[in-house]
Fold this sequence. Notes:
The complex is a heterodimer of chains A (259) and B (303). Chain A has 259 residues and is an all-alpha fold. Chain A has twelve helices and no strands. In chain A, 80% of the residues lie in helices and 0% in strands. The longest helix of chain A is centred in the middle third of the chain and has 35 residues. In chain B, 63% of the residues lie in helices and 0% in strands. Chain B is extended and about 95 Å long. The mean pLDDT of chain B is 84. The chains are: A mainly alpha (259), B mainly alpha (303). At the A-B interface, helix 9, helix 11 and helix 12 of A face helix 5 and helix 6 of B.
Amino acid sequence: MRNVFAVAGIVIKELYRRKDFYVLFILTVLICLVMASVNIFNDKQIVRYLKELCLLLIWVSSLVIAITTTARQIPAEREQRTLLPLLAKPLTRTQLIFGKFLGCWIACGLVLVCFYFAFSVLAASRDHAWPLLNYFQAAFLHWIMLGVVVAMALLGSLVFAAPSSNSTICFVVIATILTVGRYLDAVAVAQPEPFRSIIYTVYFAIPHLEIPFELRNLIVHDWPLIGWNFVALDALYLLAYAAAFLVAACLIFRRKPLN
Amino acid sequence: MNSPRTFSLLLLALLIFCFGVAAGLQPRFRLLENQRHQSNNFFSLLLGDSRRMFANSFYVKADEYYHSGFYPTIFDNNGAFKTAHMAEDTGAVNSKNHGEETGFMGAPRDWLDAFGRHFIPNRHTHLDEGGAAGDLSGSDQVREILPWLKLSAELDPQNVQNYTVTAYWLRQRMHKTAEANQVLLEGLRENPGSCDILFELGRLYAESNHDTNRAENVWIAAAKNWQPIEGDSDAKYANDFIYEKITTHLGEAELNAGHWPQAIQWFQAAQKVSNTPNALQELIDGVQAKMAAQTNAPAAPTR
């Protein structure tokens, strides 16, 4: 486990040395501040449009950071020829994969803490309320969901030739799941066989990442807390997919030539 | 050697040619100038006619906010949401809604769908009734729809509902009569003589400023500007509906002022376009009965 944490530590250090997070964070804050400065009928309490925009930017930024950071981990080690010296140490390939995953996932968690803190300050400046438990539920499920994204991108970095193609494919797949994933069953019902069965299979096979994504609506419109049992169930559901992607990545990496 | 006469004729021909070109080009330049004036709006320049599509989606977004996010998508049955509820609740829009507004999602299709519904807004609420919290004292939360309506109005200034809906909620729930007035005047600048905007302006004067005379004048202007539309389309129903509203309000104003013959005239005008002429006939009969009772009443004894 110590090896895994050592690799994870390096990944986290890499994140705060790179400028991706700072650029996206400053951009998000700037856009939100500009939008907050718009005068709408001299009413200073209008906040929901701002919350929606801010959460959308947080989601986009976190996905960009998660995918781009993860997609370049293994290819960068290979390009810089540090992969072989790394594995020459008492570190197995599985530990390397787990270390990379954990590093990226924790880094995403740290990013989310900053983003959600900025979001809660922005919302409180207009709303004069701190529904911290609601924000915690949203941020927690967001982080668990990013675990699936990180595991998926890690698997992709072993399957696809270049980080750019991996990133693009990950973005397309995730964007599709987030936008139409929830409605695939409704689409399947209207289709003739065998398309119906194919769409149903896809519907039940894909990780439903849109569930935490749609939680934004509850935050934006001040809905009450969700039952913690549902939050726990969704976290377990998503973690199962993250584990499945990680196991697949480990299996592929064990048989992959390193040169 | 050319004679001076030839030069004079050439000069005359050139002048005639120049006059002809000027006369031909002038209307075209005027048209071009008008087009340039119309595309002065930033969004018009940027998006062209597609701005109307965006404006409509922002209008729908405002209605989604009115429901605190509980809103049908293209995959759901949206029969109960054909007319935006935020507009329907102003009382100035003809509703095309039918069906159950609370159950547009239907029964859960499978366990994933059932599970996912715990993470989305799952109750029908309106912001003017307190929204998701259900707190009636928070009816001013309806302010949250305003940014989207403002954006929609900037993208499509010809959609009069953007102005009427914005103004109604501004004055009704947020008590910002001055801002509502500004919105309606801006709407009138963009849509001169619009019956819908004039009707809403009249309501503002009558209900918020309690200035009945001014309200009546505005409604009369609205009634004069109204033009009938032929056919059987939704546009005709909407057009007739607003005329019925204008004339009914005018009738009621005359009734309150004790001008019964004028009130009857306005109610009869409303009857011509109304879907419920019998209800209006009952109103007319009531006024006529009052008139008859007044004429037949014995004179009060003098002291």
